[in-house]
Specification:
This protein is an alpha/beta fold. It has helices spanning 16-32, 55-63, 81-97, 120-134, 187-197, 215-232, 243-252, 258-276, 296-303, 319-329, 332-335, 357-366, 369-378, and strands at 2-6, 37-40, 45-48, 68-73, 75-77, 104-111, 139-140, 147-153, 157-160, 164-165, 177-181, 201-208, 235-241, 281-283, 310-311, 381-385.
């Protein structure tokens, strides 16, 4: 079975049962892939009936669920001292067989059930003595052991040697729903991941410019959404045709305003779809100063175009930090595939970095923006992206 621990939820006081229930639903959805079952215990969740051949994949899956602090493959036995001793020796022997002949161990016990008649220190001592007598060659080292043998006394006894760190954060859905502007580049998937880690349920919106962008560019974005769904659960992806808007901007507005005007339209269309989808915020992958549309002045102009809050979790990160996070979550290799998105189709030679709000407003008036936004929203198609 698998022991699942949670961390930040412990700080939620009287609201903790709500967060625990949301996390349990996420764990149960994951467990169904392995025909396993989830139960809530004393400060833990127990995932039972995981087949041995599925254990490695299951541990990886559960460690990606936001709200989970760590996971351990464990053996569950009765709270009988003789049973615990035998199981501890068997587990230690199996672990020792995978290590060098000079390997050492230490026993750490935790007695969550205070009715158990033996204290934690005494239990560790008796188990350690039993292992020394029954696992030839294995020695104790309490300062720098090769491995720790953990024993937890709860509803039953749990014995394990390995603890895998998980993603932490808050269970997805406990902080509302947000609409991610998903471009197909490196930054926006990382932004979606980071907001999901804070408990935000993610929907996504992508703007495409057929025939300037190819079908492969669309497939790339769907693939990114599927990778993200490993952490967030299924993602509703809205695909917005953007060619007519880009062409109108190119034909009627000053070239240096192309990028900022496209960004304003994306925010406005995103806000319309967010309201229909009951999303409480927009999410972008902007990092301050990274490109012309991400200066403080440009961000101020795009913010003023919408009334919904805009979350920018990458705002203080540099490109190398974002790339490293993308590699960690598995989106990087897909993000760098050489298929252009709509943001790279019409790129001005000298984009404005300090747009004047009055000039931007004049350009928007020339574009019949409300009509174009309504048309784009009406033509939007949606699909569900899921890793499963």
């Amino acid at each position: 079975m698998i022991l699942v621990r949670y961390g930040e939820i412990f700080l939620k006081g009287q609201n903790r049962p709500y967060f625990e229930n949301v996390l349990k639903r996420a764990l149960a959805a994951c467990a169904r892939k392995y025909s396993a079952v989830v139960e809530k215990g004393l400060g833990r969740y127990y995932v039972r009936n995981v087949a041995p051949q599925d254990m490695s994949a299951a541990l990886d899956s559960f460690s990606k669920i936001f709200g989970v602090h760590s996971v351990s493959p464990a053996r569950e036995v009765d709270k009988e001292l003789s049973v615990i001793l035998e199981a501890a020796a068997a587990i230690s022997s199996a672990k020792y067989a995978r290590l060098t002949p000079s390997a050492t161990f230490k026993v750490e016990s935790k007695r969550a059930d205070k009715r158990f008649p033996i204290s934690s220190m005494e239990l560790s001592s008796r188990v350690g003595e039993y292992i020394l007598d029954h696992v030839p060659g294995l020695l104790v080292d309490v300062h720098n052991p090769s491995f720790l043998l953990h024993i937890e006394i709860r509803e039953t006894a749990f014995i394990y040697t390995d603890t895998l760190p998980a993603r932490g954060g808050m269970p997805v859905g406990t902080s509302g729903r947000g609409l991610l502007l998903l471009s197909g580049g490196i930054d926006s998937p990382v932004a979606g991941y980071m907001m999901a880690k804070r408990g935000v349920e993610i929907e996504a919106i992508h703007f495409y410019s057929y025939p300037y962008t190819s079908e492969r560019a669309r497939e790339k974005v769907v693939s990114l959404a599927k990778i993200l769904s490993e952490y967030t659960g299924p993602i509703r992806l809205h695909l917005v045709p953007f060619t007519d808007i880009q062409t109108a901007i190119y034909e009627k507005c000053p070239e240096e305003q192309l990028t900022i005007l496209m960004r304003i339209f994306m925010m406005k269309i995103g806000e319309e779809i967010a309201r229909v989808s009951e999303c409480g915020a927009l999410i972008t992958g902007e990092s301050l100063g990274q490109v012309a549309s991400q200066t403080m002045a440009s961000i101020s102009v795009t913010n003023s175009a919408v009334s919904l809050p805009v979350f920018r979790p990458l705002i203080g990160m540099d490109k190398s930090e974002i790339m490293e996070r993308a590699q960690q979550i598995g989106t990087y290799d897909t993000s760098i595939l050489p298929y252009e998105d709509c943001c790279t189709v019409f790129v001005p030679k000298h984009p404005v970095t300090h747009p004047a709000p009055r000039k931007i407003a004049l350009s928007m008036e020339q574009l019949e923006s409300e009509t174009m936004i309504e048309k784009a929203v009406a033509a939007t198609q949606s699909l569900i992206a899921s890793h499963a």
